[in-house]
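Practice set, problem 2.
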Amino acid sequence: MLKIKNLHASVDGKEILRGIDFEVKAGEVHAIMGPNGSGKSTLASVIAGSDKFTVEADELSFEGEDLRDMSIEERARKGLFLGFQYPVEIPGVTMANFMKIAVNEQRKSRGEEPLTAAEFLKMMREKAKVVELDAKMTSRAVNVGFSGGEKKKNEIFQMAMLDPKLAILDETDSGLDIDALRIVATGVTKLHTPENATVVITHYQRLLDYIVPDFVHVLYKGKIIYSGDKSLALKLEKEGYDWLINDYKE
């Protein structure tokens, strides 16, 4: 599904990613962990198509198509979704209108007819249940006045509506209390199928109690320095990163 070979990314002449090799197949859940400043959010942004970075790679492809010449919009239409660490507010645009445009633009790119108002409302009600989102929230401006937990629920609601092939979730657990974490993470798990894939960027094992990864990768100084199964996250929770970093040689 996603193939990355020897990925480098820099901004203003400063190299952040320094040779990433990473592959995600359909049906898999990958967790990316690592100390602050390791390049985790940069990796997510580069995959999604942010133009603030200078990118070089031997391969950066999604379902066999080269991503390097695709805009953010094209990548989204192909089925890539990025859940932001800090979701943005869009004053004056209701969630319902925002999602109707997004869903119908996606359908248009696939040669499908737009949903009718009745079809869209039915879909929205069904998907809102995934993250226990109050129906009243969809009539409010996107994320305006939302709490941290509401913003993250809203992100996963958008993910449910768009049904992406690959979802990249950048610190979805950031700022969530225990109940909100459970609701958001359970929602992500409900949306996972053998046909799609999820990449979760997190600092904490607690998220991975709900979203159980097939693979855990440690990113440090712009490189993946260690990979393992879900037990690696438990070890990192108990022992931190020192045991890896101290043995790491560039």
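Problem 2, part (b): a different protein.
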Amino acid sequence: MLAKIYDRNPSESALRRVVDVLERDGLIIYPTDSVYAFGCSIRSPRALEHLRRIREKAEGEFAVVFENLAQVAEYCRVDNAVFRVLKRNLPGPFTFILTASSRVPDKALARRQTIGVRIPSNAVARSIVAALGAPLLTASVREDDEQEYMIDPELIHERYGREVALVIDGGMGDIVPTTVVDLTGDEPEILREGRGLLQ
């Protein structure tokens, strides 16, 4: 199914449909402030396994989308220095590597102790998390050879519509991924240059 949800004032009824899918262990594709992404509820081990199969990801290689910094602090260890970096740069096109707390399910972590933290500036992504009441496990939609299948929601639906329960059309996406920053050491370390310029 393809559903249009706008970044400005996302419709409550449309968000409710998305939440229904996620609460039934469904997988979605949704817009972010960088590339389109797969998403499932952090509380759904079945959806996580489905996501792993589609993305052929090794265990523990997913990021987590949060609504706000308060929710990040529930699932990660955030000291004052880390909080200041997050506050300056989020919401925005960053993935920050943080040490996970015990609230992150073992299945999401596998043998790792860290997770990638996202708070996109796209209101659709944050509104989904707010309506669900739980973070989203996420992985970007990547088509190495055909970029249009990463940015055009209708083509994304054509490619993945049988594998996911819902594709959200939030307009044309981007091909530039997030900037990945490791905050687990003494100083922030940029692991991948992307859309975000670290403040």
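Answer key, part (b): The helical segments are 12-23, 45-55, 69-75, 80-89, 106-109, 123-132, 148-151, 153-160. The longest helix spans residues 12-23.
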